[in-house]
Design goal:
8 helices, globular, mainly alpha, two-stranded antiparallel sheet, about 50% helix
């Protein structure tokens, strides 16, 4: 919102300042939540390392939650779209824009975790394949939207795959959602299943693997339907 506001109503100097601010915020978040092993970003971080859910040495929460990663992905691609008017220019290196760097490297880490049959992602990403984990549609739709839009705005300049491959991954994810997790009732109403209702961190929400699996799984959650519609819009470009 801040960046969009300055683009519409601010000066060029104010817009550039806003983009730098946004990049600094993303850097702050990602520098503290990055998992050194899986190279994905944990759900949260406590600077004081005192919260009950936080690791006492790193301050990070225990796991990589699918939808938290989805919010980050969507933020990255939406900021880039605003910054570059939906067309990221050819950059000299992956370090030319910090958001492009994070988006490219993060996407390449996520793709191997995509289920080979349904083309969707699981609720707890760093525990992909573990017993009890399930295919989660809100995060899946967020990832699909990000990849589809990222290709359209030329954001995937430094990925391990050609740009067309990222579009294929995103399209396959949406196809997988409809093929496996969407049904239509007798009234013609569409229902998207396997949506995590909510997940947070507090004294009563310890961020354990078991915790993320304990939250209700619902249909047509708005945090999944919105990204689904956004992804479908990208498919018509």
């Amino acid at each position: 919102f801040y960046l969009e506001y300055e683009k519409r109503f601010g000066t060029k100097e104010e817009f550039d300042k806003a983009y730098d601010f946004c990049c600094n915020q993303i850097d702050l978040v990602t520098s503290h939540t990055l998992c050194p092993d899986c190279k994905l970003y944990h759900h949260a971080w406590d600077s004081a390392h005192k919260q009950s859910w936080a690791d006492k040495k790193t301050g990070r929460s225990a796991h990589v939650w699918c939808r938290a990663e989805g919010w980050l992905m969507m933020t990255l691609v939406d900021l880039l779209a605003i910054r570059y008017d939906n067309n990221v220019p050819r950059l000299e290196s992956i370090d030319s824009d910090p958001l492009v760097k994070i988006l490219n490297t993060l996407t390449d880490k996520l793709i191997p975790l995509q289920d080979s049959k349904t083309h969707t992602w699981q609720q707890v990403l760093d525990c992909t394949g573990k017993k009890g984990n399930y295919q989660e549609m809100t995060g899946t739709c967020m990832f699909a939207y990000t990849m589809l839009k990222g290709v359209r705005i030329n954001a995937y300049q430094f990925g391990k795959k050609p740009a067309s491959a990222y579009r294929t991954v995103g399209k396959n994810a949406i196809d997988g959602v409809f093929a496996n997790y969407v049904t239509t009732d007798e009234n013609g109403i569409m229902w998207m299943h396997n949506c995590c209702a909510v997940a947070g961190l507090s004294d009563s929400r310890n961020g354990s693997y078991e915790y993320y699996l304990s939250e209700p799984i619902i249909d047509n959650d708005s945090k999944g339907m919105g990204p689904l519609f956004l992804a479908l819009k990208e498919l018509i470009y």
